[in-house]
Every structure is written in C-alpha cells, then in structure tokens.
What does this fold into?
Amino acid sequence: MTMPESPRLLWPRLLVALARSSIGSIYRNWALASFSLVAAFAIWFVIEDVENPRVTVRFPAEGLPAAVPVEARNAGNLIMKDSFAVAVVLEGRDKDLENLVPGDFRAYIDVQGMQADIEDVREVKVESRRSSVRVVEVIPSAVRVTVVEPVERELPITIRRTGQVAAGYQEAETASTVEPAAVVISGLPERVASVRSVDLDVNLSGVRDNTTVEGDLVARSQSGAQVVVTITPARAKATLQIEQTFVQRTLPVEVLTTGDVASGYMITNVKVEPATVAVTGPQAVVSGLNKLTTPALDVSGARTDQTLIRTIDEPQNTSLGRPSVTVTVEIRPIECSSGPAGAPCGGTTFVVGPTFENTPAGLTHSGLYSVEVKITGPLTQLRDLKPGDIKATVSLAGGALGTRGYPVTVTVPGGLKAEPVANVQVTLVASSGGGQ
It folds into this structure.
C-alpha cells in the first residue's frame, strides 16, 4: 500500500509546475505581447504629434535682427576683429520651442590655422543647448572673419556709486578701499583705447552701516557706454565706511553766577535739574562739546536760596532734548568763630561736582556724583569763595567693573584749607563709545 506524500514535499513540486506553465504561456504569446507594445508606442506618437506636433521656426522671428552671438574657437591668443551674430532655423515640438533665448544656443567659428590680419571665410556652427531642439539651418552659414593681436592696458578700479545712504548718514571722508586696486583690460585696439574707466557698481540706497560689495567689473567709455573688452580679474570687492551725520550725546548743564551775595553769606552749592540734557546734531559739532551752559544767574545781594528756570544755550546746528533747566543756588551764612579779622572760620561746607581721571581703558563712570567739602580759612577769603573755585578730583586708577570707593583730592585757593573727604562710591561700566 502506497503512503500519501507529506505536504512539505508537495510544495516544491507545485512551485516548479507553476513556473513551467507561466514561462510556456509567455513563450506561446510573445508575438502578441510584442505587437501590443509596438501598438502602444505608435498610439503615443500619434497623440503627441496631434497635441504637440513637431514644427520648424526661425529664431529670432522673421524681421528681427540676428541675436545668437558668435565666438571664436581655437584662436590661441588672437581675437576676432569683428563681432557676429546669427539667426537659426529650428525643428522641435511646440512646447519645446517656447521661450527661446540666445543663451539656449552656442554659435562658433573655428579659426584654427588663421593668421593675424588676414581675412578668411569660415563656416558658422551652432549647437543647441536644448536636447529636444534641433538646429536645421544657420543664417548666415558663413562669414568673412579676420583675427588680430589684442592689446592690453592697466587701469585703476573706480567705485561707481548709485543711490543715497539712509537719511542721517553719509559716507565717511576716510578713503574707501577696493580690491584689487587695478586690473588689466585687453581686446581690440580701438575698444581698449576707448575705455575711460573700469567700474565696480555699488548701490548705496538706504545703507546705514559699513558695507562691503563684491561684483563684476564693467569697462565704460567717456560717455558712460559699456565697452566690450576682457577684464582680468573680472570681479572686485569694495569696502565703504558709513557714518552718522547726526549723533546724540548726553551732556552736563553748567550754570554760572554773577554778582555778590549779601555780606556774611556765601554760595555753597548750585543744583541743576535735570543735571544732564541730550543734544543732537552733526557728529563734528556734537563730539566737540563737553558741557551745556545757560546765561549767568545774577545773585547780587541774595541771602536765601535762589530757584529759577534758565534757558539752555543751544549750540549752533544742534537740537536739545529740552529747552530749559531748573537752577537752585544754595546760599548760607558764613559760620565763623569770633575773633580778629582774618581769623580762621569754624567750617563752611560746599557741595562740589567732581571730575574723574585715570579712567581704565574700556570703562566709564555711570551716574552723577557730588562731594561735600568743608573749608576753613580767613573770613575775607571765604566771603568771596565760590563752588567753582574748589576742585575735587576722583582718581579711578586700578578701577574695575562694579561699584567701589575711590579717593578724592580737593584743591582750594591759597590761604584756605579743605578737610579730608571720604572715598566716593563710583560705579564703573563698560564704555559704549558714545555719550558723556
């Protein structure tokens, strides 16, 4: 009795039988399959010819001048004396012939073997850069061509500026730079001779910052027309310095007094509110200012504090953040011990705005400062003493970022004595290059 085969043994036999059946079917029907494939291509070509037929056109169109420039090949160091352009008759499908430009073609004359200054007739050949477009005819098909030795000249590069920088800015007086500074032009003698400048065009419209521009160089004639020559190198880079024509700084306001207060009294402080005011104007003017002033304040015969509004003197060609300040002149009785004339005074205190020296590089002081100075001396001298006669100097030597105490040196007129002043707490910050 024969036992049935295992399913595991039947699977390979079934696969082999199926493969033999498929191959046999393809072999028996290969002719039908080939016919179907050919028929499909034929139908596609028919549809393509109907919807997008092959046509012949002239480029540029009839009546327009030739537009495809002709170059010389195998010329060595020679160049063509004349320039040429040709038209072409093309074959292709409608869609492939749309939007043609001269750059879609490369026209050339092979001048190999020609001698300088000897004319010869040479065929013009044109290659299509569109694979689906075929060149059928070149118009004209040949030209009379002469090759000549080129000449050379070296010329400096000129920056040709167009447009205006942003309002409130100008190109700095410091010379702009261009790299390289000069180039060599070469070409036909008459063209090279007609070149008056080799320009790098730079558009400054709306520019506010230092700017670097790199671009192609252009040779121009006296009239400004472009001249076709070879420029070596063909590109350059220019760097231009742009600066603000108007800047703003914050400056202290100084108020002077005139006249003498009442006998037995003295000015101990002049307070200005606000102590600083913004001034805007041309950089050359504003950078030369170190303070703002007001008309002198007359304190003749005064015995008490004087508070007045004073108009700020506006420097020429500038504008101020505010037109006036409030000035308070503090007037105090002179407190002196009894005794003979010329005896020392018991002590009179002045409020003085210090000056700063030995400021570390890259740092500046932030804020407003004042020191109280007690002065003693003969009554006759104290009577005529004014805050401006007292000099308080703060040395910032060895200073660092942050707040710390710095020593104060006080100088007074001869015959008077200033008591020692405690260190002033000063805040140093990084300098921004502008402002006070």
Notes: The CA atoms of residues 220 and 226 lie 4 Å apart. The two ends are 119 Å apart (CA to CA). The chain has four domains: 55-148, 151-244, 246-333, 336-436.
